[in-house]
Amino acid sequence: MNRQQITDRLLDILRSAADDESVADRCTEDSLLQTDLGLSSVNMLYTVIAIEETFGIIFDDVTVLSFRTFGDVVDYVERKLS
Amino acid sequence: MKWSPGQCRKGDIVRVALGSLYHYGVFVSEDEIIQFGYPPLPEFAEQNRDPRVRAVDADTFCCGRIIERGEPEHGDKKTARTPDEAVQAARSRIGEGGYSIIHNNCEHFARECVLGVRMCEQETEMRRKWQQRGILDVFVARIPDNAEPGPIADPNRAAYVAETADEKLRIARYCVWELLGTALRRCAGVDFPSLRFTRAINGKWSSDGAPPFSLSHTKTSVCVAVSDGAVGVDIEENDAFDRFGDPKLVTSRLLCHGERADSRDGILSVWTKKESIFKQTSGTVFEPRGIRLKRYETATFRLPGFEDLTVSVCGKTSALRCYVCEGGTVRGVTPVRI
Question: Which of B255, B267, B337, B270 is nearest to B302 (CA)?
């Protein structure tokens, strides 16, 4: 799965997880998860679980603060899948 | 586990609500509650960079919220530790790290110390929600001006497209099939060319190797819905009913008793909804007045860049996700409901 495909899947998850699904429309790799996308800790938990289920990976040693931007999440998933 | 505010006792599992999440700990005394990481609040951002098991006082633990104590119920009692054992287990882990938001968090810690079972109900519940969320993905694309029907792997669909005398209809049937391939690859990861499809007597297409889907097209655009349950979709140009002039010519053939459609959008909405219901229920003859809208779960919407079209879908609308396909790329978009 290439970076674009990972990004597309993550945006799908964001639509399901965020309180306002339109945040996915304005999301870029530089978007800050908490301040730009408004993800609460509940949204983050749901997002992380959804990512595990979607990509079949396990998040180890991950805290709410592990990811600052959307691009950080893409990097993490890309690294895990490789 | 039964939760209630009350006098906490040594060895209790305790929690505070932070929005719809909870922060957990092991109560020893008002001066000592043992927690794994601080509550996930901005004021503790620095401390939570490297979450560890530590003892704090009740004020720090609760952040001004009400502390609830957990009362073990039948299932919990089998493995529950005595208060002294619970406190000893919690204290022995002070300084421990290795925090993970879903695999090793404050709830795992507190439950393991007090109940002897390492689990997180919050994680279990969210995972269940994700697994049961359902799928309803809708894809829309324009028919290119220079579109030409190409080869179609499935012989039944190839024959269906080839038999069409009308050139524009043939192109639309080809393009909607192309879009189905895109949708199935994206939603279900299926190898589209290897699938074989059949067409029922009511015109509905299906394949043993594909999830339920529905097709629709206009003279300019095509639309596909894919779901994990029965689904129907309909797309119409917004000016589809303008040629009738008097709206009553349409509404008299469209509405059931008690239903209303007072505007162009209203008529479009009801018409497309009923056609999507007809497709979802695999009806044989489309008789709009025989379909009562309120009995079905439907959504009507427009998509960015496709505002000249109205789409309705019948199925698990709470799971609705929309995509537009432009220039060979697929992009998720937010539907504007009408």
Answer: B337
Alpha-carbon gap, residue B58 to B47, rounded angstroms: 17
| Closest to B35 in 3D by CA, of B24, B21, B20 | B24
Interchain proximity A11–B129, CB inside 8 Å: no
Span B133-337 CATH architecture: Alpha-Beta Complex (3.90)
CATH 3.90.470.20 residue ranges in chain B? 133-337
What is the pLDDT, as a whole number, of residue B315?
A: 96
Which stretches of chain B are DSSP H helices? 58-62, 74-77, 83-92, 106-115, 121-131, 155-162, 167-188, 248-254, 264-280
Q: Is B130 in contact with A44 (Cβ distance < 8 A)?
A: no
Condensed to tens digits (0 to 9), the pLDDT of residues B92-134 reads 999 999 998 889 999 999 999 999 999 999 999 999 988 888 8
Which tens digits make up the pLDDT trace of B41-96? 878 888 888 899 999 999 999 999 999 999 988 877 778 899 999 999 999 999 99
Q: Which domains does chain A have, with CATH numbers?
A: 3-81 (1.10.1200.10)
CATH T-level topology, domain B2-130:
endopeptidase fold (from Nostoc punctiforme) (3.90.1720)
What is d(CA A47, CA A64) in angstroms, rounded to the nearest whole number?
11
Closest CA to A8 of B131, B317, B333: B333
Chain center to CA of B35: 34
Q: Which of residues 8-67 of A touch B (CB under 8 A)?
A: 8, 11-12, 15-16, 21-22, 24-25, 40-42, 44-46, 48-50, 52-53, 58-66
Residues in chain B closer than 8 A to A16 (CB atoms): 130, 133, 321
| Residue of B239, B237, B233, B229 lying closest to B216 (CA atoms) | B233
Question: Using an 8 Å Cβ cutoff, are B314 and B277 in contact?
Answer: yes
What is the C-alpha to C-alpha distance for residues A10 and B275, in angstroms, rounded to an integer?
33
Strand ranges across the sheet with B53-56: B2-5, B68-71, B13-18, B21-29, B32-36, B53-56
| Residues 6 or more apart whose Cβ sits within 8 Å of residue B119 | B107, B108, B111
Cβ-defined contact of B334 to A8 (cutoff 8 Å): no
Nearest to A65 among B21, B45, B333 (CB): B45
